[in-house]
Design a protein that fits this description.
Blueprint (H helix, E strand, L loop, with lengths): L9 E2 L2 E2 H28 L12 E6 L4 E4 L2 E4 L3 E5 L25 H12 L4 H12 L7 H20 L7 E9 L11 E9 L4 E9 L4 H13 L7 E4 L3 H10 L4 E4 L1 H9 L7 H12 L4 H15 L4 H8 L2 H4 L10 H4 L3 H13 L9 H16 L9 H8 L2 E3 L2 E4 L6
Parallel strand pairs: 7-10, 10-11
Antiparallel strand pairs: 1-2, 3-6, 4-5, 7-8, 8-9, 12-13
Length: 416
């Protein structure tokens, strides 16, 4: 039942629209639980005892638990099942357990995505509870001690993630970037070093996430060495920005990997060396390079850019000429993958919300806790990452197929 609406459109438990959403969520959950139980009972209708009575029947309802969801805290009286069947192997009674609302479930996974964001906003465990009450309508089951336990679990999860075996994960493409999510880390100029990869089936996956210095060869080398120690093999291509530390570390740790410079970072770097009046034209000229239909046309566009800007702004032109080979490396890979390989956007888009909306405050706690929050946000985002276009071509790349200007020109012998 909905509450009485006040003159200002609010109710005793918050705004009317929030209560409508919660009531709608409650009804949908109740209907789903009913359908689940009905299906379970129907499938076992033939199961009967010696007297011909059904062994699986309905048996009233459970006491309604408060379940915290993204729509707020809702109470649903789930239907109860009386299952009198006995497991022949163990002699124990069989039990019905809802896959939608397990007995232990008191909050939906979406709430787990909200909590680290609140922490990154600078909320202490004590402050997060009233904040959750406003966001969810209720903070049932999310007391300050509960939130504190969750943050400890996040740190443990991050530690386990950084120690997992990588020998079974073949990353063909890798994006690498150092992001600054504006959380308090261990050193003044520290950032979060991120590695994200494309597995042989074309799916994207977070590989590693650690604190380090973006321009430091040693920081990147430490991270890459750790990945190699845990079984990671050389990727076919690594996409990153202009941080020299990354490229020096790659030569040392994964020497077989080719390098692709991120065009978004490069354009930003080039236009910063130009006066504002020249920037629009330069951006357009640079777009002509990386949008060229093949390497030959791209190289011609590089020459046009140099001819146009070299006389007045040689430093800006040198930034393109000196890195031309690594800026055009993507042409030697499938054309369907170019959109993914020209930039580090997969990392940028994942962390953009964190970088824009977080601030350095006491709320993130220790550097380790702050890093754990960033990890949990990235982990939550990972479930929404899409596979690369034409994922079947990733295996061909790994197998050694040769591509020219995006087209397959030579298959590996095993795939021929």
């Amino acid at each position: 039942m909905l509450s009485v609406v006040n003159a200002d459109g609010s109710t005793e438990s918050g705004s009317l629209i929030d209560e409508i959403v919660r009531e709608g969520a409650r009804r949908m959950l109740a209907a789903a639980l009913e359908a689940e139980v009905n299906q379970y009972i129907a499938e076992l209708a033939a199961e009967r005892d010696g007297s011909g009575r059904r062994l699986v029947v309905r048996n009233g309802r459970h006491r309604p638990p408060a379940v915290t969801t993204a729509a707020g805290a809702i109470e649903v009286a789930a239907p109860r099942v009386n299952d009198r069947r006995v497991d022949a192997a163990t002699g124990e009674r069989k039990r019905f357990s809802s896959k939608i609302l397990p007995p232990w479930c008191r909050k939906s996974p979406k709430v787990s995505e909200v909590l680290p964001l609140l922490y990154l906003h600078g909320l202490s465990s004590g402050d997060s509870v009233p904040a959750l009450e406003q966001f969810l309508g209720s903070a049932a089951g999310l007391s300050a001690p509960t939130v504190t336990r969750l943050t400890k679990q996040w740190s443990d999860d991050h530690a386990a993630f950084q120690q997992r075996d990588l020998s079974g994960s073949d990353y063909v493409y890798v994006w690498a970037d150092g992001v600054h999510p504006k959380v308090r880390l261990g050193q003044a100029h520290s950032c979060v070093l991120v590695l994200m990869g494309v597995r042989i089936d074309g799916t994207k996956e977070l590989i590693a996430l650690a604190e380090g210095l973006r321009e430091s060869t040693e920081s990147w080398a430490d991270l890459l060495r750790d990945c190699r120690r845990r079984g990671m093999r050389d990727p076919e291509l690594v996409v990153g920005d202009g941080a020299m530390g990354l490229w020096r570390a790659l030569v040392e740790v994964f020497p077989a990997a080719r390098h692709q410079r991120c065009w978004v970072h490069k354009i930003r770097n080039v236009v910063n060396a130009l006066p504002k009046s020249a920037q629009p034209g330069a951006k357009k000229a640079l777009q002509e390079i990386y949008n060229a239909e093949d390497r030959e046309h791209a190289e011609k566009a590089v020459k046009v850019f140099a001819k146009t800007y070299e006389a007045k702004w040689p430093k800006a032109v040198a930034k393109v000429i000196d890195d031309a080979e690594e800026l055009l490396a993507f042409y030697d890979f499938p054309a369907e993958h170019w959109i993914h390989l020209r930039t580090t956007n997969p990392i940028e888009s994942t962390f953009s919300t964190v970088k824009l909306r977080t601030k350095v405050t006491r709320g993130a706690g220790s550097p380790a806790a702050a890093l754990a929050m960033v990890f949990k946000l990235a982990e939550s985002a990972q479930s929404r990452w899409r596979a690369v276009t034409a994922p079947h071509l990733v295996a061909l790349v790994r197998a050694g197929a040769r591509f020219e200007n995006g087209r397959l020109v030579e298959r590996p012998e095993a795939a021929a």
